[in-house]
Write a structure and sequence with these properties.
The protein is of the alpha+beta class. It has four helices and ten strands.
């Protein structure tokens, strides 16, 4: 697998790139690719949120997406990871197993930088001190994934907290900085990359 660090790019640009890479991976024209980036502020709205008529505050820019899950905040102080991976190993037989593997990867990466992440029965993702700091939402084409997950490390105060994401109440989703953890973007990215081979059972090219 290959990591690509893209910096800050618009969500629409990343979406087009993900679609192109997914098609290439399905056709066997590329290896697994993991995009790591940050978006300018935008709230993405999945099919479930649209079906449930979730209302987004007027001061948030919104984009509709086709991944699983409800609504997800994106913006400064958040690491976004889009794995364009062909999930075909023995422990990747269904979506639940894939989500579980991604959660384990996030938990392992956070532990390496001194943060105790956990699962929570309320919702998939990774939680710290009872608050959700990492969200996961994927879509698949022939078991090649698109979209991915986010880790909130130092988001602007009140922005991610102001969204009732995925049926959770406002203030449940937050960032590591708001919980008293002093970690920066570089540390989060380095930890994700350094733990990827063992957690995903794939070699980095």
């Amino acid at each position: 697998m290959e990591f690509r660090l893209l910096g800050r790019i618009e969500h629409s640009v990343a979406d087009s790139l993900m679609r192109e890479l997914q098609q290439q991976r399905v056709a066997g024209q590329t290896e697994d690719v993991i995009l790591i980036l940050e978006h300018p502020e935008v709230v993405t709205i999945g099919p479930r949120a649209r079906k449930e008529g979730v209302t987004i505050p007027e001061d948030y820019l919104c984009n509709e997406v086709d991944r699983g899950g409800g609504i997800t905040w994106h913006g400064p102080g958040q690491v976004v990871v889009y794995p364009i991976i062909h999930w075909q190993q023995e422990d990747e037989n269904n979506v639940s197993q894939i989500i579980n593997k991604i959660e384990s990867w996030i938990i392992t990466a956070l532990a390496k930088i001194g943060v105790d992440g956990k699962r929570d029965k309320r919702m998939q993702g990774v939680w710290v001190d009872g608050h959700k700091v990492a969200s996961i939402g994927l879509s698949f084409l022939r078991w090649v994934s698109r979209h991915g997950f986010t880790i909130n490390h130092n988001t602007p105060e009140g922005r991610v907290e102001g969204i009732s994401g995925c049926g959770l109440g406002a203030e449940v989703t937050t960032s590591l900085s708001q919980l008293g953890h002093d970690v920066n973007e570089e540390a989060v990215i380095d930890s994700l990359i350094s733990t990827a081979e063992s957690c995903l059972n794939r070699n980095i090219s």
